[in-house]
Every structure is written in structure tokens, then in C-alpha cells.
Amino acid sequence: MLIVAITIVDVQTPESIHLGPLLVVAPAITVSFGSAWLTGLIGALAVTAQAVIAVLHGGLTTPNHLSQIIGLAVLSIMAVVVCLTRDRRTAELAQVRSVSEAAQRALLRPLPRRIGPLEISSTYLAAEKEARIGGDLYAVARTGDRTRVLIGDVRGKGLAAVGEAAALMGAFQEAAHQHSTLPALADALDHSLCRYLTQFPGTDDEVQEHFITALLLEIPDHDLVARLTPCGHPPPLLISQGRVTTVPTAPAPPLGMCELEQGIRTSHTFAFQSGDTLLLYTDGLVEARDIGGAFYPLERRLARWPHCGPEMLIERVRQDLLAHTGGALRDDAAILALRRTAVAHTGHPDGELVGTGGRHTADQNPC
Question: pLDDT tens-digit profile of 47-81?
Fold first, then answer.
């Protein structure tokens, strides 16, 4: 339409007025939405229209018209080159995203919606816009008649922290079945992480400053309690009978502080009744700021949704967090919600994770 309109107007105006150069707008606009082939086609049509104008306004061989035609052809070719470069970079970005998503699935395996007596939902928000993974982590292991949960936060953020997160999750999946208490499990994870951090001491001057805050949680099937061992991590929030409270925890060092003595971590037991929900999170959630610098008020916001199932609760928190920050996070954030149900859904005897494979029932209660 632009090409036709400009051509008609130029032909109808006196020869002293030259509107043909405006035809460059057509291929320039096409670059923003069209492929290289479409941009080339529009450029060719624009050059043809310029030739028509030249024939009707003084002749095709006049210096003015020749320079306009050549200039328009060169600019059209440049527009095609821009399209080709953009398409190549778009394909490369799509490939990087595909690899990133595959790495995330390998590192943070999707959790079952139900395991033992628990309904589970989780989400991960990466601080780096083009990344889908970072230094936050969570994992669940089924051992005997109990479920063990790990949530952690590697010092730092983004792809640089992925290696340490993967090392800790691998150690957890193995050690969770070998230790009878959470403090013993925490010490085993600490040993594994210290070995990992000291494998290549010559390549990192800040090995001693690398650590992971973590929280270990154990929920037995038949006792209406839960046990936790903190390792420098924010305490979980308990939603029970419409009230939101912070689960008390004792101070303890993070994992990976290799110079500290072992055996200093303890376990805390608290009531976890049927219908109660636990929200575990990393500090990227509560330290997220709005435009005015105010932290995200997680506990106050949870009081708005005391009857949500895990899946809906996670979704509400995610949307509310992004609205609070304007969609830009400064740190990775992992969120994990666990709700105890009245009926236990057990897994395989060997301790592998098992989901129901059916429709999630966490949202049967209204929010």
C-alpha cells in the first residue's frame, strides 16, 4: 500500500518534486516483521516502482533517477542482510534456550504432584532473563515411610552457580537413603560439598567463600509432625487453620563452610496436621524489591490465600511477586509448597519418586 500510494502521488506531482526516495520506508518497515525473502520481495517492488516513476518523470537514464534507483537497491539489499543476521541470531537463541531447558529438566527434575501423604507444587524464577536455571535448587526423596525434602540457595546466581547446585542435589539423592536423622544427613551433604569445592583449588580464588544455604525437611507418613534441620536458610512458613506462622529454627551455618566443625546442626520437630501447608522458599523471594525498594511481604501476602491448594498457592505467589517487582528479579527464587492430606500415596519400595499421574487435586479447596 505504501509503495502504490507513494508511486501514484509522485507521478501526479510536478517533476521538480521527488517523492520516490520515500519508497525506502517499505523495505525498512518489512524488516521488523518479515522474513528475508519477504523483505527482498518488498525491496524489489520498491525498486520497480522507482523505475516506473523514473520512466514517467523525465526518463530512466537521468542521473537523479539512476542515483535514486541504485540507492534504493543498495538499502534494500542491506535490509535483507539485516534480516538474515537477525534470523540467524534468533535460531541460535532458540537453540540456547532448548539446551537450557534440557539442563533444567536434568538438574531440577519435575516433582511428582503427590508423594506419600503430600501434595506438592513448585516453581523456579531465574534472575537472568535468558536463563531458565540458576543457583537455587529443590529435591524430594522418598525413603521408607517418610518423605525428605531439600531446598537450597547457592551463593551467587545464574549459570555460574549451576555446578554447585547439581553437586548438592546429586549428593542428596544418594545420602537421603543412608542416614537415619536429618543432622547426620546435613553433615554428609556438607562433606560432599566440601570435597566438590576443593577439587580445583587453583582455579578459583574464592573457594572459601562458596557455600549453600539449605533447609532439610522430613515428613513421616503416620505421625502428624514434621522435622527440619536448617543450614543458614530462611525458615519455612506454616499455613494451618487459616493462620500463617513462621516455623522456629535454630541458627546454623550453611553447607560448604569447610573450616567449621561437624555435628553442630540440630533437628526441630513441629506439628504438621492434615490440611496444613508448608511453604519453602529461597531468599530471592523475600528479598525481592519493588520500585520503591520495599521487600516482598511474603507472610502478609500468604494470609490472603490460606485455603489455596499447593498449585494455586504457588501460582498466586508467583504472579504477585512479578507484579511487586515489575517482572524483574535481582536474584533467583525457588518456591515449594507441600500440603499434608488425609490419605498417604506411597511410592515404590526402593524409594523412587512416584506421582499419581492423574489430575491434581490440590485446588479442590477454594482460595
Answer: 998 888 888 877 777 888 888 889 899 999 999 99
Per the prediction, the chain carries an average pLDDT of 84
Task: State how far the Cα of 69 lies from the Cα of 46, in Å rounded to an integer.
Answer: 9
Distance from C-alpha of 212 to C-alpha of 165, rounded to nearest angstrom: 8
Strands of the sheet with 333-345, listed across from one edge: 114-125, 333-345, 277-281, 237-240, 243-246
| Alpha-carbon dihedral sign for residues 127, 165, 111, 303 | negative
Spatial neighbors of 318 by CB under 8 A, at least 6 apart, are 123, 125, 335
Q: Which long-range contacts (CB under 8 A, 24 or more apart) does 233-236 make?
A: 233/151, 233/152, 233/153, 233/282, 234/281, 234/282, 234/283, 234/286, 236/278, 236/279, 236/280, 236/281
CA-closest candidate to residue 281, choices 298, 301, 265:
298
- Asked whether the beta carbons of 40 and 76 are under 8 A apart, the reply is yes
Residues 6+ apart with CB under 8 A from 140: 111, 112, 115, 120, 147, 148, 149, 150, 353
Which stretches of the chain drop beneath a pLDDT of 70? 104, 128-133, 156-160, 200-209, 343-366
Predicted TM-score (pTM) of this structure: 0.71
In our burial notation (b when 16+ CB lie closer than 10 A, e otherwise), range 43-65 reads bebbbebbbebbeebeeeeeeeb
268 DSSP 8-state letter: E
- The predicted-structure confidence for 192-216, as pLDDT tens digits, reads as follows 988 888 875 554 445 556 789 999 9
Q: What is the CA radius of gyration of the chain?
A: 30
Query: What type of residue is 21?
Result: P
Report whether 36 contacts 87 (CB < 8 A): yes
Looking at the chain, the number of H-run helices and the number of E-run strands are: 9, 10
3-state helix, strand, coil in the chain (%, to 5): 40, 20, 35
